[in-house]
Amino acid sequence: MTVTAPSRPPSAAMRGPARRRGRRGLLGWLYATPTAVFVGALFVVPLLLVVKMSLSRWPLLTGDQGMNAPDNFTKAVDHRFFTDSVVFTVKYTVLATVLLLALGLGLALLVQESSRWNSLLRASFLIPSALGLASASLLFYVLYSPYASPLAPVMESLGFTFLGSPTAALLSTTFLIVWRYAGFYMVLMLVGLQGIPADVYEAARSDGASRWQTFTKITLPLLRPTLALTTVLCVTGSLLAFEQFYILTKGGPDNSTITVVQLIYMVAFQGQNDLGVAAALSVIVLLALIVMNALQLRAFRSEER
Amino acid sequence: MVADFRSRPTTVDEPASPGTPPAAPARSTGVTIAGIALRTPYWVFTGAVGLIFLAPLVWTAVASVAPQAGTNQVDGWGLGNYETLANYQAGIWRYLANSAFVSLLTVALTLLVSLLGGYAFARFRFPGRNILFLLTLAILMVPYATLLIPLYVLLNEVGLQNSLVGVALVLTMFQLPFATFLMRISFEAVPRELDEAALVDGCSSFGALWRVLLPAVKPGLITVGLFAFLAAWNDFMAPLILINDSERMTLPLAVSNLRGQVQGVVDYGATEAGVVVLALPCIVLFLLLQRHYVRGFMSGALKG
């Protein structure tokens, strides 16, 4: 909805306010100019450029070599790690989303009541989220190492390492992510929980509903908007996972933990140095993400009816 | 919206006061011995969960000064690992300065752009207003990596390759959806009469913003600045892709690279020290500005 000036014939009475509105419009643009410059130059232009790059031969060192569509897309899909990375990313996304939402809700229910003890708990759940993902990954890199970890004796006696097998690496990385983000999802869940009116709970209690019934019949349905938001956030974030695997596993062991974004980075800057194929992969990820988010929002909306 | 939330009976953003003894939860009926006995398992359980979240941080801080084989701190406690960190390549002061520069520039640009933009979106009607606002929010929808590849090419074109200014510009752009949204609702929460009165009194629109509205939106600015700082200080992927000169690396990159410094043998002690240096400003800011931090998260939730 854009506001256009009314196209009535300019009468003497109209000229004043119309001119003032024009001046206000101009002033509005003046204040919005920095935003427009940033969004235009660093978002819209790169977005158009990535589409152009995906349709062109574009080696890292020599730059644009002209159109070659659709070569980059066929090369991207035929990449030896393409299917594996998609499957792994989806697997990781499902695992991380289920765990984070369940734990976020669990923690929120645990510290829902207002008290000093609960404030202290909330703060301790939230502190890891102030750390950067890279810092948290470096921290767990040491914590998981068979040499420096305080758990090294446990690893030795049980004969496994946290990052040694594909399954262990996936679970260990997911644990790091849950540690880092659980507090964030707890806050979002708390906001949702506090949006549920207290008298609904009162009514349920006076009807003799059990705790479990109250949770499944009242809390969960009324929390749906929050669950929709957190699911979209968590799925989007997990599908774009990069730092945690780049730092913790470097895609290993046996290339079993390569995510899609890591594949983009590898194709662009590590060895293959093909920005065209990397751009094609980026466009595929972008489209997949838009479709996924639209589907999720529609699913949550249709359930509402 | 935020203010409305905070008036509800249970508050999320009540700051924790570290060091105070745990108080009985509000709902417990009186301080009876039976009541305390009933709540003890709850305290033990929740306390244990809280400790799981704190333990990795505490352990890292302790381990960074503890003796450890294969590090610069083999015998006794001390700062050997921090010495390794200090002497790594260009030296930690260089990387700290780089990180501080990128973070402060990002904070300054984000505050300036979102203050003016939020004002424009909240108080003015101009052609293209809604399109521009939606475009700004759309930045959230697009993956980081999708934009960093073309940004790498673009910054090369304009001579900002391998530049900390380029990194700060990119990081500012990624902050704009959250910052603009938050500043817009901050301005909209201020009664219009306030700036209209100033305009009638002969203030220019900028005067009204600077003298009358700025104090009113200060909490929003603190939240925006805090998030911009944390994002820029901690960012890994933008400098990883945009910087290739080791002199210009930011701290997260330097600590990440330091792991493999001696022929592939990882110096875990120096890595621990690096994590402590990286985490310390974030944790201090979190403890000081917890209320603003939580409110930032909540405004994200209310958007949905």
Automatic annotation (TrEMBL), chain A:
CDD domains: TM_PBP2 (cd06261)
The protein's name in its UniProt record: Sugar ABC transporter permease
GO biological process terms held by the UniProt record: transmembrane transport
Cellular component GO terms held in the UniProt record: plasma membrane
Assigned keywords, A-Z: Cell membrane, Membrane, Transmembrane, Transmembrane helix, Transport
UniProt-annotated location(s): Cell membrane
TM ranges: 29-51, 92-111, 123-144, 159-179, 227-247, 275-295
Every ABC transmembrane type-1 domain range: 86-296
Taxonomic source organism: Micromonospora musae
Membrane topology: Multi-pass membrane protein
Short name of any one Pfam family annotated for the protein: BPD_transp_1
InterPro entries in UniProt: MetI-like, MetI-like_sf, UgpAE/MalFG_permease
Family membership noted in the UniProt record: Belongs to the binding-protein-dependent transport system permease family.
SUPFAM superfamilies assigned: MetI-like
